[in-house]
Every structure is written in C-alpha cells, then in structure tokens.
Amino acid sequence: MDFSDWFDFNNRVKQNMTLVKEVDGRTVTKQVKGSFNWLGFIFTFFYALFSQKYKTKDFLKKAAVPFVALILINFIAELILGRGLVLIINFAGNIWYGFMFDTWFKNQLVVNGYHVDNSAQSESDTGQHDFE
Predict the structure, then answer these.
(1) What is the rounded distance in angstroms from the CA atom of residue 121 to the CA atom of residue 104?
(2) How far is 70 from 92, CA to CA, in rounded Å?
(3) Model's pTM, two decimal places?
C-alpha cells in the first residue's frame, strides 16, 4: 500500500474498465466504473465493508486507512477549532471517497494480480460485443 494511492487524483479511473485474472483455470472478471461513486460518497468505508461488488483481498484495509485518518482529523479539529470545521472536513472526505473509491479498488485489483482486459475495453469502445 502506497501513500500516494490515496491522493493520486491525476491518475484516477476516468472510464469504465474490465479487469481479469486467471484463478484455478477460470477467468475472474471485475468491473471498475470510471465515474464519481455516489455510494462511496454517501457511505465511505461502509460501502466497501458491506458491498459484495468490492470484495477482494486487502481492499477493506485500503478503504479503512483514509476513513480512520478522517476520524482522527475530525477529532483533533473539533478539540481545537470547534464543530463548524468538522462538518467541512466530513464533506471534503466524502467527496474524496466519491472521486477515489473506484481508483483504490482498481489499484488493489492490480496488486492482487488482475490486469486490464484490453479486448473488453476495445469492444466497449466500438459498441460491438461477441455473445457466444
């Protein structure tokens, strides 16, 4: 886990992609959305915790670290500056989760051995799909 993963807005996922991995002779496919994740915005870490879509090795850890950091920052801000700043920090944290949630997921899939399926990517770009 790299610290830059949490703040790499320039390299965030901006288009839908399919990642694949061979496991015991079968192909496992995961879809990653390339847009703002509204459920990540609303539920932050809890979306990763309770969603079946985001079940992959070590993704909960990756989503929990910024959540715990935000809790600590909120606690310190409330002690020092009062309640008003805490609301702003919470809102900024939710926006951060919304923008970066699927990027964190994609990065964790890559660490877990998945790779971008370029054939699925090119089919979706042309609008042609092979249904067999």
Answers:
(1) 19
(2) 10
(3) 0.80
